[in-house]
Design a protein that fits this description.
By secondary structure, this protein is an alpha+beta fold. It contains two helices and six strands, in the order E-E-E-H-E-E-H-E.
Length: 103
């Protein structure tokens, strides 16, 4: 089994025109996310510990951008994300693989 972690990225469009004075304008917009995999996870308890330990490597936040863990689950070792499957189907190979983390 391997752990699949996916994120939600949001960008503050209000910050693009901000001059750095006063409060930063807030206009957050969802922008997709990133898929991560951790190999060798044996069970749900270990998966939960891995997610908590890796959060600091995955999540980030500023006045301009935020990435948060949106969810996770255990999948088979040969599992591919929708994006990876579409690359195989349309291009015949996976050129842009999901990121792999080590726990």
């Amino acid at each position: 089994m391997k752990l699949h972690i996916w994120t939600q990225d949001i960008e503050n469009y209000g910050a693009h025109d901000w001059d750095g004075k006063g409060e930063c304008p807030q206009y957050w917009k969802a922008k997709g996310g990133v898929d991560y995999f951790v190999k060798g996870i044996k069970n749900e308890g270990e998966a939960t510990m891995a997610v908590m330990a890796l959060r600091s490597q995955i999540e980030e936040s500023s006045q301009y951008f935020c990435r948060e863990v949106a969810g996770w689950n255990l999948v088979a070792n040969d599992y591919l994300t929708e994006f990876e499957r579409s690359q195989l189907e349309y291009e015949g190979s996976i050129r842009f693989k999901s990121k792999e983390l080590v726990w």
